[in-house]
Amino acid sequence: MGDTSVTKVTAHRAPKGRMGQKYLASGVSMSMRLWQSEPPGESKPETTRDYETVGYVVDGRAELHIEGQKVLLQPGDSWVVPKGSLHRYVVLEPFTAVEATHPPAEVHGRDERMAKQV
After folding, report:
1. What is the pTM for the complete model shown?
2. pLDDT digits over 74-84, tens only?
3. Can you tell me the distance from the alpha carbon of 76 to that of 68, in angstroms, rounded to the nearest whole number?
């Protein structure tokens, strides 16, 4: 018989990270987080991360600047940031998105430290 454990996380009770993200369900090799109504503002610093991220835009607009490319993210769009890619986000209007990371971003402090800032 396989693993029968189930984890349920309710977004309004989910733990929050220092960058404003809410940690949703997390498994052994991947996790989900929610960016809810992130306000527009200055660009976040360029960074690389030691995990892969896939995301889906629920509401709002943002720009993803990644390895010399600029991608406009709007409701219904999804994206990938490969592990180790130099990138930054610019939120253009209140932005809500769900992301999955592999391995889990919150484990071993991966989410709270920047592997590289430029």
Report:
1. 0.86
2. 999 999 999 99
3. 23
